[in-house]
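Hi C.,

You asked whether I'd gotten around to modeling the 344-residue construct. I have! Everything is below, sequence then structure, no commentary in between.
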Amino acid sequence: MSGDSDDGLLSKLHLAVMPSSANPSIVPRSASLFEPVRDRYGWRLALVFGNRAPGGLCPYVAAQRCFHCDIGSGEGAAFDHMTNRKRLDWFRDHYQSCLASISHLVVYNSGSVLNRREMPPEMLDEILEFARSLPAVRVISLDSREAYIRPVALRRALQCLGEGYVVRPILGLETADDRIRNEVLQKAMSRTAIARVFRDLREVAAGYVAESVGIDVNILIAGPGTTSETAIDDATATARFALSSGLEYGVKVDLNLHPYYAGHRASARFPDHLRCSLATAARAISRIADVVRSMSAGASLFIGWQDEGHDRQPEERHCEIQHARAAFDCFNQMNDPGSLADLE
């Protein structure tokens, strides 16, 4: 971490996310320009690259899967290597005032950055070389799917980075309930495939120093398939399942917690399913924090609230963020459920 005070760094970060008039094929949409925030590792920055698959679509969205999520819809066009390289250069310039303070870099591409059809390994190498050039970065999270979290891809990432870094693929589990995950959300993610991911992570980690490899698991709170009576139990059971898998295979698990909101695809598929209330989110997250402590899992918890512009209730979202942002920010740094008490 640099010697900047929080106030000084926040001022720089505000300047870093101001809109730009640069080429829109290189510059991400304003809603995909993530503001740096703090988590348990320090300052966290998420970068969104373009998807190389046909139409720029996540293959699972193209195949009519994952109906809770609009992120895989991409940016409307397939990227090539040069366009993504130019976007990387643009990010380097755009965030230059705060890059020295970033500890945790998160890489997205509206799909899986570990699928060579969506992001060729050579492009990911360039992104990881960029990460390696940042003095404070030690943790790199890579958005992916269970089908692409494979030893070859993980070893290549670790070799590109060298010693002293932790590589953490992101797995969009959403729920441990097989029926909800695969019949309601249609994620086509079997328990056998999930177990294989953890085995592969253990295999890769065995060749490196401790905790060079981990996994970030996404949990959807109060998503389709749950009710007001079952939502908190579902989120808690999902956390327990992810943490138990990590303990079984010796893999460090962190949890990304996402209160449900309806995007375009979810609104069409689940028109009667309401957004997750702040009170439900706070109670579920507090319960999950209790599970982490009781299992001695050592997981870091992060509440994801940036929506890339997909939330179809922007006024409600704005009110929620105004009310909850300080509490979310405090929780993300300390993981103390007491931070959320006023939201319950």
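If it helps when you're writing up: The longest strand covers residues 166-174.

Thanks,
B.
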